[in-house]
Design brief:
There is one protein chain. By secondary structure, the chain is α+β, with helices and mostly antiparallel strands. 16% of the residues lie in helices and 28% in strands. The protein has one domain.
Length: 75
């Protein structure tokens, strides 16, 4: 599976999105959902802009990198 971008119109309304609990009142967070054998990611404040779909392996690598602090310099 290759990373894919889907327009919002191409995403089923039946998809269940999960938003991180640390997004705060302003909603500055991303949402994730299982989709087509992969994991879709979209901005919680702009769901109408579509989503990127990554493989489970790509998401797992990202999450592990975040846990390890690899991206701390960006925030």
């Amino acid at each position: 599976m290759q990373t894919t971008y889907l327009e919002a119109a191409d995403i089923s309304e039946e998809v269940t999105w999960t938003k991180g609990s640390r997004s705060g009142a302003a909603g500055h967070c991303v949402e994730l959902a299982e989709m087509g054998g992969g994991i879709a990611l979209r901005h919680s404040k702009a769901p109408g802009r579509g989503a990127f779909v990554y493989t489970r392996e790509e998401i797992a690598a990202f999450v592990q990198g975040a846990k390890d602090g690899e991206f701390d310099h960006l925030i």
